[in-house]
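for ur thesis appendix - D-glycerate dehydrogenase. copy paste whatever u need, i formatted it the way the template wanted (i think)
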Amino acid sequence: MRRKPYVFITRTLPDSTLEPLLDLARISMWEEADKPVPRERLEKEAEEADAILTMVSDPVDRELLEGAPNLRVVSNMGVGYDNIDLQAADEMGIIVCNTPDILTETTADLTFALLLASARRITEASDLVRSGNWREWGPLLMAGHDVYGKTIGIVGMGRIGTGVAKRASGFSMNVLYHNRTRRKETENETGAAYAPLDRLLKESDFVVCLAPLTEETKQMFTYHEFRLMKRSAFFINASRGGLVDERGLVKALEDKQIAGAGLDVFQEEPVDPGHPLLSFPNVTVLPHIGSATVETRKRMAQLACRNIAYVLKGYRPKAVVNR
Ligand code: DGY
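the 3d part is after this line
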């Protein structure tokens, strides 16, 4: 009798999301929803697995893949897949999938929320109330900056960037974008105008980073880029921490080269509570929650399972990112 394929899932996911795999495979999950699977356990599971369902925080490197002789697919629960060594997967004939589209609007919402929170000092103001330090109404108490009518510069105009551009037009913002390739369709749809990076940095009141992390984009925001920005401008990052030279950002904030930042992502996650970026009141920080709504995370988990089911049945899923 043929052995039933084995699927290992690196976090506990709701049972309802596993449905696509139920008749097809033996499934086991790491017993925690909010703690990463220890490397040793992952390696051990990979030795047997036909498929692994991973989170964007799980490093899937060459060494892990080499120790996984039966592995046919790595299904990442996220649109980003910079945690996976694609070249190694390619060489070993392993399919890598992601979960695009279904998280676009949710992540665009969060990105725009982070922009608004940064401009209007929402977390700082909330902390003032909670700490008991709100003594009286003041004409400039917690005064932030307007968003409507300002210029937003979106770096990385993919699906999420387009979603942010649509939201920005609803706030009567002037929308600039920079991307590897020009997006005429998006320009028509959103009214966004293409700009070279230098111009975008110089003219934007909000620079929003949504480009994927690749060899090309790694550390693309250094002190030099922040210095090109207006002193009144905010830097918002909802993509990956690896796009930013964090020391350069700290220096730009110290030197008041920019007005503040909104960060959903960091170079090292979870970020160390003693990290200098966390010491600035004008930096709004979030724990990488771009796509984190119950509805979207369930859809992502289901799609990640469906991607595996396709491969196990011998089909090619739509969301393959390599090969
Ligand atoms: C993604 O999908 O890549 C997100 O960063 C996860 O929230």
